[in-house]
Amino acid sequence: MNRAISSSIACNASERFIDERIAAHPVAETTDTVTLRRQDWEAFAERLEDIDDRAAVQARRAFESAAGNDVARRDYLTGDEALRLIDGENPARIWREKRGMTQRALAEQAGVGVSYLVEIETGKKTGSVEMLLKLAGVPAIAMEHLVPRR
Q: What is the number of other CB atoms lying within 10 angstroms of the CB of residue 120?
């Protein structure tokens, strides 16, 4: 039981490999399980998260290279926009303004009433899934970006 477990993890993200060595010292072992000290498990989990994060960054960079920065970064929020979202401002308003649209223009293009859009943006109404899909289709916003988080 004193032997160290060393695991090598490789992630293929846009033709790059990440190789991490993670060592742990088991407290107990059976043929089906290995028991680790909490600090070993937490270090292991943290390293796995780091590997996943690096792979996501590499994949995003590869997408940006392939699509071009203007296209790829079209859906990035600025710091101010992110703070507005965190502070609870309605996502439909933030994304509409990001796309440079007026309420009237978005409502007309989506085929909804301006007053209904105002009620959604001010939080008086949540908007049906059908309505949010209409709104998302006009400025090309992912549906999940329009649903306020509670």
A: 25
The answer to whether 28 touches 1, Cβ cutoff 8 Å, is yes
**Inter-CA distances, 117 with 92, 120, 147, Å:** 9, 5, 14
Q: Give the pLDDT confidence of 23-58 residue by residue, as tens digits.
A: 778 899 999 998 989 988 898 889 889 999 999 999
Record the pTM: 0.59
Interval 103-132: pLDDT, tens:
999 999 999 999 999 999 998 998 888 888
* Residue appearing with tokens 């000290």: 37
- The CATH fold assigned to 77-146 is 434 Repressor (Amino-terminal Domain) (1.10.260)
CB-based contacts of 40, cutoff 8 Å, min separation 6: 24, 25
Alpha-carbon distances of 122 from 43, 67, 103, 116, 118, rounded to whole Å: 44, 35, 12, 10, 6
For the chain, what are the domain ranges?
5-69, 77-146
> What residue type is 56 in one-letter code?
A
Closest by Cα among 56, 135, 42 to 95? 135
